[in-house]
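ingest -> validate -> predict -> emit
validate: passed (alphabet ok, no gaps, 174 aa)
predict: started
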Amino acid sequence: MSGVKKIVVIGPESTGKSTLCEQLALHYNTVWVPEYAREYLNKHGSSYTYDDLLTIGKGQVEQEEQFSIQKGKLFIDTDLYIMKVWCEFVFGKCHSWILNTAATRQYDLYLLCNVDLPWVKDELREYPDLKTRKRLYKHYLDIMINQPIPWIDISGTYEERFQKAVSAIESRLK
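emit:
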């Protein structure tokens, strides 16, 4: 494995994942891996099928691998756990490739973004109601609790989230 420390930022939509990745990459003078689903859906349209989620998952991993050749810290906006949640939440099932590959990916820290930020509408977001967003958050929380990689809950204002993330990175990735 290269000398890169991989920090994944996950959580439901509109929880500040991309903003946090961008802030952290700037702070640590490094790069971040954008969410491939956004690129894919902007290109192919906002409607998607079960099979599209497999294609998106594979694209996310490929994109992550392209960025992983560097040294230092790499911030990753979503991973295959997001594809797992999305498959199960929307379609009630998940591709075995996503499940198997998610179980073998190597990361150093997860930052789980909570749903306490105000909803920001955009053409790709689907669940503006807080009740659904809390249900989705619980799915991510269950995954974090049941996987071996260290993680921290990120909540509060954008600035508080940034400070919590930096603190977690500094204390856990020495």
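The chain has one domain: 4-172.
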